[in-house]
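Example 9 (inverse folding). The structure is encoded as follows.
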């Protein structure tokens, strides 16, 4: 009956659906578990447009998420008619919240492949991103963060920006990851100098640098494997 209602009501504007069957009201009455995935998205999206109802907008968002959950971006979502910056931010925030509090639990990070599985979205970025992975003493992931966006250089990679959150996390170790959007996954002289500088700082704060990994669309480079640590 619920699926039948959903199919029938998805053709209507939200205000045309009986109050008891509207996703938000149903959630209040029966809890989030009573909602379908599409209805949960409808709650997040909130409203449609004059030319497109909220269910249609939610369906398009759902298709993008199903195609590439880890690669969903605000830019992709905003290509959908009816999704502006505010709605795109709300959806990305919900995905990020879920990733931080549910997906990360118990993730062990010990190999280059483990790292690459966590940063797959970097391969498609058109700008350089610098990420940190903070780990506990057993090398379980504590947090994955984008520290900054832009070309890697000494002025941007200030140690305070890199290590302040790691110290707050009480991290035992840290891994750096950044991408080369239009080039080879090989460190530049600047990459090497910055990495050595960060390693020196890490010794002072007592957080071990396990690796610095560079990725591009198809390849990756590990400083640790190439004895640059």
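The amino acid assigned to each position is listed next.
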């Amino acid at each position: 009956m619920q699926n039948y209602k959903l199919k029938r009501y998805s053709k209507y504007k939200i205000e045309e659906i009986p109050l008891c069957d509207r996703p938000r009201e149903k959630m209040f009455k029966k809890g989030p578990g009573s909602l379908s995935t599409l209805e949960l998205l409808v709650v997040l999206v909130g409203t449609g447009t004059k030319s497109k109802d909220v269910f249609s907008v939610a369906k398009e968002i759902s298709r993008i998420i199903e195609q590439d959950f880890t690669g969903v971006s605000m830019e992709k979502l905003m290509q959908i008619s009816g999704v502006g910056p505010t709605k795109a931010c709300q959806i990305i925030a919900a995905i990020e919240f879920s990733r931080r509090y549910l997906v990360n639990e118990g993730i062990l990070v010990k190999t280059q492949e483990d790292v690459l599985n966590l940063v797959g979205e970097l391969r498609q970025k058109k700008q350089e991103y610098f990420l940190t992975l903070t780990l506990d003493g057993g090398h379980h992931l504590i947090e994955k963060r984008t520290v900054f966006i832009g070309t890697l250089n000494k002025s941007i990679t200030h140690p305070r920006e890199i290590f302040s959150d790691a110290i707050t996390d009480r991290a035992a170790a840290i891994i750096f990851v950044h991408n080369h959007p239009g080039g080879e996954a090989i460190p530049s002289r600047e990459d090497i100098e910055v990495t050595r500088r960060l390693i020196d700082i890490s010794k002072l704060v007592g957080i071990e640098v396990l690796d610095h990994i560079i990725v591009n669309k198809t390849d990756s480079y590990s400083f640790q494997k190439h004895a640059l640590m």
